[in-house]
């Protein structure tokens, strides 16, 4: 009798857990993002590693905006920063975002709001190569609010992003 209850109980517990408490699969493709530091969900050696397919599996956000680095308006698609942080159970206050060339910027966790920045992996429907600011570029919806058109925000818009450290 009790054996028949365990599978049902496991389903109830698994579906009742918030998304951030559920496990994170290991990447099967090339790792393009590694998140470390103060996070609850990890998959490889205390970090959360993502390949492109894993990032695409998270809720995608697309918006159009102009940037100070490109001509005209472009469509950017990626995972919103707030979705990523929620998925990983982030509890820090600052994100140290670092690019392939070791250039780093600090982004306050408070920037991770609905309708805020995304980790873009597509521009105009195409994946971004390293040559074109990829594989990931932190993009804010600059045209959506004058608050996003400031030197501070532009300085946080790191391209060729490949790692984030969550700091307390």
From TrEMBL:
Residues annotated as transmembrane: none
Pfam family, one: Oxidored_molyb
Signal peptide stretch: 1-21
Protein name: Oxidoreductase
All copies of domain Oxidoreductase molybdopterin-binding, residue ranges: 70-141
Assigned keywords, A-Z: Signal
């Amino acid at each position: 009798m009790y054996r028949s209850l365990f599978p049902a109980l496991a389903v109830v517990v698994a579906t009742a857990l918030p998304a951030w408490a559920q496990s994170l699969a290991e990447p099967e493709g090339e790792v393009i993002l590694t998140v470390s530091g103060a996070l609850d969900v990890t998959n490889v050696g205390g970090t959360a590693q993502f390949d492109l397919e894993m990032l695409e599996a998270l809720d995608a956000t697309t918006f159009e905006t102009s940037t100070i680095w490109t001509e005209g308006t472009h469509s950017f698609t990626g995972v919103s920063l707030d979705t990523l942080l929620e998925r990983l159970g982030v509890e820090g206050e600052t994100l140290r975002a670092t690019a392939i060339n070791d250039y780093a910027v600090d982004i306050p966790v408070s920037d991770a709001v609905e309708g805020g920045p995304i980790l873009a992996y597509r521009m105009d429907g195409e994946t971004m190569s390293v040559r074109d600011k990829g594989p990931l570029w932190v993009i804010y919806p600059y045209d959506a609010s004058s608050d996003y058109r400031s030197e501070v925000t532009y300085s946080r818009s790191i391209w060729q992003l490949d790692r984030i450290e969550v700091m307390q």
